[in-house]
Amino acid sequence: NITNLEIGIQGLLEKNERLVSLNLNGDYNTLQNKLNLGFVFSDFIVSDFVGNKNENGLKIDVPIDGKISAEIDIAQIMNNKEDVVEHIDDIIKNINFQVNGGKGEVVFNEQQRFNYAIDSFVLEGTVSGGLDAVTIRDADFETAGQKTRLSLDVSGYKKYFFEKSLKDLKIVFSIFPPD
Q1: 0.90 cut: is pTM over it?
Q2: How many CA within 13 A on the CB side of residue 116?
Q3: 3-class SS letters over the chain
């Protein structure tokens, strides 16, 4: 009997004369009917893929590396095929992420006073309860030589994401002095 199936896909993607490294790993446990997915990327510049600016003027021109992992309950997908979105809490157990960024800038609009030069950043956290709770444990930013550490806890996000309702949305934002 086969109890685990593993697959790995690696590749390079060229965009705007830059190479982005991509790696996707999957591990399916047939006994538990669960799929663990991992996605690793490096040298990814958001503005290369999202366009120079969206309708709000936002441009993120920062190279990022990261790792995202998720556990997916395949049995829950099969049991809820008619409405997978409604049961997303049961299907996706946790999404863990770690993203590191290098030197670049975030442009909110053409006016210089709303643009931010980024020296580096690290974001580490989880998305749990389907899409209902987002926790960023460590968010370290360095801009213009100044360091900042943040944390963020968001709950009730699922209702906002799917229904655009702020009713259950709660956000706790903390700023800590640098080490």
Answers
A1: no
A2: 14
A3: CCCEEEEEEEEEEEECCEEEEEEEEEEEECCCCEEEEEEEEEEEEHHHHHCCCCCCCCEEECEEEEEEEEEEEHHHHHHCHHHCHHHHHHHEEEEEEEEEECCEEEECCCCHHHEEEECEEEEEEEEECCCCEEEEEEEEEEECCEEEEEEEEEECHHHHHHHCCCCCCEEEEEEECCC
Q: Which of 58-62, 77-81, 132-136, 157-161 has the lowest mean pLDDT?
A: 157-161
Residue type, 156: G
Asked if 74 and 59 touch (Cβ cutoff 8 Å), the reply is: no
Per-residue pLDDT at 10 exceeds 90? yes
Location of structure tokens 């049991």: 79
Torsion angles phi and psi, residue 4, rounded to 5: -135, 140
